[in-house]
Amino acid sequence: MPYKDPEKRREYKRRWNEANKEKCREYERRWREANREKYLEIMRNGVKRYQQANPEKKRERDRRWAKANREKKQETQRLYQHANPEKCRASNQRRRARKRDQHGLVPVTAEVINQRFELFGHACAYCGAQHELTVDHFIPMARGGTHAPSNLVPACRSCNSSKGDSDPEQWYRQQPSFNEQRWKQIQKATGHHKAPGQLALI
After folding, report:
1. pLDDT per residue as tens digits for the range 17-64
2. Which residue of 20, 43, 50, 200 is 20 to 30 Å from 113, comparing CA positions?
3. Alpha-carbon distances, residue 189 vs 2, 8, 25, 117 (angstroms)
4. Rounded CA gap, 62 and 45, in Å?
5. If you compute the radius of gyration of the chain from its CA atoms, what whole number of angstroms results?
6. Residue 118, SS3?
7. What's the mean pLDDT in 98-126?
């Protein structure tokens, strides 16, 4: 390069690139093919830096993409939820807690959810089913229950939907699946050992 001055070198390089666009493109193509992993890493880092510097633009672009690709987004979400059930459960519970201003409690992470499920052998606390498990607030949040680990039990989708915001003991004793042994296990896991109708809130 004929110039020692940095500014002149940059200007010379800019003019050369402008006059030799085809050569530059071919060189870049060969370099990408020979350094594919490095190129992808550079691109990922560049995208990440741009997204961090422009969060509003990223959200708007994501919103437009999701609107134009509803089916792809739904399929992507379905596959992720199937592959990461614990993370999705924890994320959904955190979202619900934020909506109800449940702050300052012990963080409910995917690991915490898994520990709570292990207490019941990864089966519904109420009926014992082992499919379509969801996270249930034993004392419903609408009744003052908190988004704390001790208030969480696994429940199949059917039991969770049926229980809703009902008083847990009154609801459970009316169910065909009621089991005294399971009820005692629920009481022990949630710290509730009160007389019927006198369940403490956690």
Report:
1. 888 888 888 888 898 888 888 888 888 888 888 888 888 888 888 888
2. 200
3. 78, 74, 65, 11
4. 18
5. 28
6. helix
7. 81
